[in-house]
Design brief:
The protein has 522 residues and is mainly beta. The chain contains two helices and 35 strands. Among the domains are: 89 residues, Immunoglobulin-like (Sandwich), CATH 2.60.40.3080; 149 residues, no CATH class.
């Protein structure tokens, strides 16, 4: 009877806890749901800070890659920035220099990083930082990599005194497969794939030179997404022609970089995107094993297995979002939802902006449980009117939504021409489809809390290796966390009441409710 009662209370508690919180800022994250960071501003000079990538570690900590630069001084240095946040939204001071790794290069003389692109978190905790810049004296653009230790210290044994330079250009993404990394993006006007091992060494067996370029119709090409299916590399990108018309392109190769000429027209297909004005593929997912769904700033396109727009999807293979606006970042989540964010003008002037984050169901209709009618619009700097832009959106392993971007502050209102751009990170409360009645019953034999009710100690019985643990009170606030999860937890400091314990094994979350009783034991 006690188990059935607790299960009923747990399901009721889950529904109230999650549905009431969706789309609101998570105040257990840096106490406000917001994190700001200014790394290079030097009054009276302008600066810019732009987030390039966000990676969640297995322990729930966040690695953020950014590009910072300032107009101060003659050389106008460009900085590669990597900072790490704890699960509570504070800087992890054990990383880099008080939470921040910084590497500066000169914009005019030796610019290793004119752009920052991606982070690779390796299984041993080391980190590759990938960007693009021009080589000293030759002025030739190359892909640039540096390697960091798990604590954010530059590994000078890597490459040439810590720096690796490779043929290439800007990198859109990285695909890890069978002990190798496939880096894909663009070089000049050609699409690009580079293959290297996990030590950053080029695999010269790939296409004979370690990389391949793809010129489609002598236009501007770029690979932006890639998967491996049936032992084939399938690279997706866009082609921009001289009339500024945009095409979705698909190219197939074998794993050694040889073109699969049996696919499409000599290994290539192109689908014209009528009336599309943007060329950035925010995200893609495989549908039913043989169709490809893409988001381009909140418009959705579906290709069939032949690389042709799927006429059974929307209108001639195209759907627009119900908010009828374009978004800067989009993610298809693992629970089948779609999350999107942008900087939205909400006042009379262009700097009257807020961060607008929305959520759709898998049928592309509004998820009315999120925010107000599916959207959350927040001026992240209340009582002021500043430009706010979203660059990255990510659903975390615990289901919460992270948005990273930049806010431009005017330090001196009497001199509005001086701009101070800061990084920002927002974390939203968000429920996911993993906490269902059937899931709870199915996991009950593999994940148990005992004793329950408990007075001062609870134990976790599970065959999973847990990475971190969060305990929530009935208001949805995190009251206790463990980043190196132990299976015996002291709860003596908690008030009497009902709590939810969520544990993460690096792939999914497991949840259970427990009752904390008063200090007077029987």
């Amino acid at each position: 009877m006690m188990k059935k009662t607790l299960l009923f209370l747990f399901i009721t508690f889950i529904n109230v806890f999650y549905n009431a919180q969706d789309g609101t800022l998570d105040t257990s994250f840096n106490t406000t749901g917001k994190f700001f960071l200014d790394t290079v501003f030097n009054y009276p000079y302008n600066n810019t800070e732009v987030i390039a990538d966000i990676v969640e570690q297995p322990d729930g900590k966040l690695l953020i890659l950014g590009k910072s630069n300032t107009s101060s001084g003659f050389f106008q240095p460009v900085f590669c920035k990597v900072f790490r946040l704890n699960t509570d939204g504070t800087l992890d001071t054990t990383f880099g220099n008080n939470g921040i790794f910084s590497y500066s290069t000169d914009a005019y003389v030796h610019n290793l990083f004119s752009n920052l692109n991606k982070l690779i978190l390796q299984p041993d905790g080391t980190i590759f930082v990938i960007g693009y810049g021009k080589e000293y004296q030759t002025d030739i653009g190359k892909t640039t990599m540096i390697k960091l230790s798990s604590n954010g210290i530059m590994d000078t044994s890597f490459g040439n005194n810590g720096i690796g330079r490779y043929y290439g250009g800007g990198i859109s993404g990285v695909l890890a497969y069978n002990g190798y990394y496939y880096l894909y993006g663009g070089s000049s006007n050609d699409a690009l794939i580079i293959k290297m091992d996990t030590n950053g060494n080029i695999d010269y067996n790939f296409n004979g030179v370690g990389y391949l370029t793809q010129d489609i119709d002598n236009e501007i090409n770029n690979f932006q997404k890639m998967i491996i299916k049936d032992n084939k590399l399938i690279a997706f990108g866009t082609k921009l022609n001289s009339n500024n018309q945009i095409y979705l392109t698909v190219c197939k190769f074998d794993l050694d970089g040889n073109q699969d000429f049996s696919y499409g027209n000599s290994g290539i297909t192109s689908a014209f995107l009528y009336n599309e004005e943007y060329s950035s593929l925010n995200d893609m997912k495989l549908i039913n094993g043989d169709k490809y769904l893409f988001s381009i700033r909140g418009n959705f396109y579906q290709l069939n297995k032949y690389g042709v727009l799927d006429s059974s999807f929307g209108i001639n293979g195209v759907k627009t979002n119900p908010f009828n606006r374009r978004f800067d970042c989009v993610q298809f989540t693992e629970d089948g939802k779609i999350i999107m964010s942008k900087g939205l003008i909400t006042g009379y002037f262009s700097n009257y902006m807020s961060v607008n984050t929305v959520k759709l169901n898998s049928d592309f209709n509004v998820d009315s449980n999120f925010g107000t009618n599916g959207e959350s619009t927040i001026n992240i700097f209340p009582n002021y009117h500043y430009e706010q832009y979203s660059y990255k959106i990510k659903q975390l392993n615990n289901g919460k939504i992270l948005v990273g971007g930049s806010i431009t502050i005017t330090p001196n209102p009497n001199v509005p021409s001086i701009k101070n751009e800061n990084y920002f990170i927002l974390r939203y409360n968000n429920s996911v489809n993993t906490l269902k009645t059937n899931d709870l019953i199915a996991d009950s034999n593999n994940f148990q809390i005992y004793p329950n009710p408990a007075y001062d100690i609870i134990n976790i019985k599970t065959n999973k290796e847990l990475k971190n643990i969060e305990i929530f009170d009935s208001s949805g606030k995190i009251v206790k966390t463990q980043e190196r999860a132990l299976k015996r937890i002291d709860i003596s400091d908690l008030q009497t009441g009902m709590y939810i314990l969520k544990a993460f094994d690096g792939k999914k979350s497991l949840s259970s409710m427990f009752l904390k009783k008063g200090s007077d034991k029987p």
